Amino acid sequence: MSRYLLGRTIALVLTALAASLVVFVAMAVLPGDPAAIILGTGARPDTLAALRAEMGLDQPVAWRYLEWIGGFLVGDLGTSYTYSVPVADLVAQRAAVSLPLAVLALVLSTLIAIPVGVYAASRRGRAGDVATMGVAQVGVAVPNFWLGLMLVILFALTLGWLPASGFPGWEAGLLAGLEALILPALALALPQAAILARVTRSSVIETLGEDFIRTARAKGLSGEAALWRHAVPNALIPVVTIMGLQFSFLLAGTIIIENVFTLPGLGRLVFQAIAQRDLITVQSLVTLLAISVIVVNFLVDLAYAALDPRLSRGGAR
């Protein structure tokens, strides 16, 4: 297990460094000069050159990357061109919205999808299976931003149960913050729940056909007990994989959903930074999101090893 963990950790570090390099190079080759955008097209050449020097844009690309990644490793993400404050401060402020939103969406997706998937698998080919999987198919096809707008019309404008947009801040109270996040979390969660439900159904159906399930039934275990005691726990590995990937998709999905619901999170910050050519903010945020995806995949690998020790033994060999 220790060799497996070491190998996965080394892979995580190398992948994170490669991701940071790809993001930096992509930002460096984009057309446009951030200094010219800040000063405007009528700026004098000497003023423009001074600002470029202040921003470090006159340095070689390789040196700029080493300087940036060195600061990144110690928590210095640079200073935003637009807001003139450390990017780390912006990330800390906005993550207080985006991370709870993504976690809430993942929890809702899981709570909805796994019971639905198990229910459909236990009634394979019957009306309940067909109905739930039909709804799931529609859920896969529906864009989350359209779903968000429909949720606003129903629950905010028609019923008046929840706020339509904005975020009051956690200082207004936990309940007020959660009320503001419920609709965007549902808009993120429901399409992902549809995918997860289909994966859960397929995995449970495959497990129900295994020999150990037939043996358990032959020993007198009821179908319901065999399903929940043996089939569902053994069907969790592919489900855990999708859940890990979904957290990454949920973080990326906040870029759209936070703009639909005008939430001051990381997704909205990325959108604003791209519009304002705030390259240091964009590259730091995108790198953080990429690293979060890599870390989640690393945790999924560890969950794999915990659910099936054969994987870690195979990794050690």
From TrEMBL:
<dbReference type="Pfam" id="PF19300">
    <property type="entry name" value="BPD_transp_1_N"/>
</dbReference>
<feature type="transmembrane region" description="Helical">
    <location>
        <begin position="99"/>
        <end position="121"/>
    </location>
</feature>
<dbReference type="InterPro" id="IPR000515">
    <property type="entry name" value="MetI-like"/>
</dbReference>
<comment type="similarity">
    <text>Belongs to the binding-protein-dependent transport system permease family.</text>
</comment>
<feature type="domain" description="ABC transmembrane type-1">
    <location>
        <begin position="95"/>
        <end position="300"/>
    </location>
</feature>
<feature type="transmembrane region" description="Helical">
    <location>
        <begin position="285"/>
        <end position="307"/>
    </location>
</feature>
<dbReference type="InterPro" id="IPR045621">
    <property type="entry name" value="BPD_transp_1_N"/>
</dbReference>
<keyword id="KW-0812">Transmembrane</keyword>
<keyword id="KW-0472">Membrane</keyword>
<protein>
    <submittedName>
        <fullName>Peptide ABC transporter</fullName>
    </submittedName>
</protein>
<feature type="transmembrane region" description="Helical">
    <location>
        <begin position="174"/>
        <end position="197"/>
    </location>
</feature>
<keyword id="KW-0813">Transport</keyword>
<keyword id="KW-1003">Cell membrane</keyword>
<feature type="transmembrane region" description="Helical">
    <location>
        <begin position="12"/>
        <end position="30"/>
    </location>
</feature>
<feature type="transmembrane region" description="Helical">
    <location>
        <begin position="142"/>
        <end position="162"/>
    </location>
</feature>
<dbReference type="Pfam" id="PF00528">
    <property type="entry name" value="BPD_transp_1"/>
</dbReference>
<dbReference type="GO" id="GO:0071916">
    <property type="term" value="F:dipeptide transmembrane transporter activity"/>
</dbReference>
<feature type="transmembrane region" description="Helical">
    <location>
        <begin position="235"/>
        <end position="257"/>
    </location>
</feature>
<dbReference type="GO" id="GO:0005886">
    <property type="term" value="C:plasma membrane"/>
</dbReference>
<keyword id="KW-1133">Transmembrane helix</keyword>
<dbReference type="InterPro" id="IPR035906">
    <property type="entry name" value="MetI-like_sf"/>
</dbReference>
